[in-house]
């Protein structure tokens, strides 16, 4: 199949500095060797607890944070080696929507200016076309096109997220990286925004990377799901397969916390012991071994390989090797 985005062995280490000389004494390994591909038009969900490296990964793909190493190939071009100006150009194709739309909207800009700005920065369209696009996009995201003179504070959280989505779409991107786009919203509003994203995807042929800590949200929108733990890949497969047949013990624990609609189909809740280890001092062997309910001797000694155990179903766990 075609590939829109290919990420290969992506790493982001943040140096830890100490003392007057600010010497590097270690690294926080936020993203520690992540690889995946995204096909045009699909949604890849990326899940894990906070601190698992999801947001750093999202920002590193766009080089809002520079990666330590690895390849990020968009339509065959390695964006990691692009010049700053070529990267700015590339960002037109890959836009990000953040969790907190309020923090990412300039409070002194009207909604009209908020949406016109990216098109002006990228020298896209004529002034008349830009105005027309603003009205069209507001309508597309379910807002009144007459809202252009209002300011972000006049809107609810859900409306602000619609504005954030409209702004990302002004420059006509192919890929949207959605970083916990509904996490800050009420549950009733969450489903409206998810429906909107789903409609926009069908309508505009968009490709999504959808980052979330909530598996039920991810299930709804994703074609495939990548589970991350402590900056590492734990499991990657089709969304239906992941929910029907989770292999990695961490995925099983995450799934056990998702409420099931059918009360007879009771699932036992798996409570993980201990806290997420520090990514500055990750465990040897399998990064999950300190909390894994079925850890074996080998798990603290050897890093499990990332293996395709069935067609399209990959997992990093000694249970399957
Ligand atoms: Fe658990 Fe071992 Fe599998 Fe890691 S490799 S998830 S510790 S069984
Ligand atoms: Mg879809």
TrEMBL record:
Gene Ontology biological process: peptide transport; transmembrane transport
Coiled-coil region(s): none
Occurrences of domain ABC transporter (ranges): 5-255
InterPro entries, per the entry: AAA+_ATPase, ABC_transp_ATP-bind, ABC_transporter-like_ATP-bd, ABC_transporter-like_CS, Oligopep_ABC_C, P-loop_NTPase
Gene3D superfamilies listed in its UniProt record: P-loop containing nucleotide triphosphate hydrolases (3.40.50.300)
Pfam families xref list: ABC_tran, oligo_HPY
Keywords recorded for this protein, A-Z: ATP-binding, Nucleotide-binding, Transport
A GO molecular-function descriptor: ATP binding
PANTHER family for this protein: D,D-DIPEPTIDE TRANSPORT ATP-BINDING PROTEIN DDPF-RELATED, TRANSPORT ATP-BINDING PROTEIN
Family: Belongs to the ABC transporter superfamily.
Listed name of the protein: Dipeptide ABC transporter ATP-binding protein
Biological source species: Alicyclobacillus mengziensis
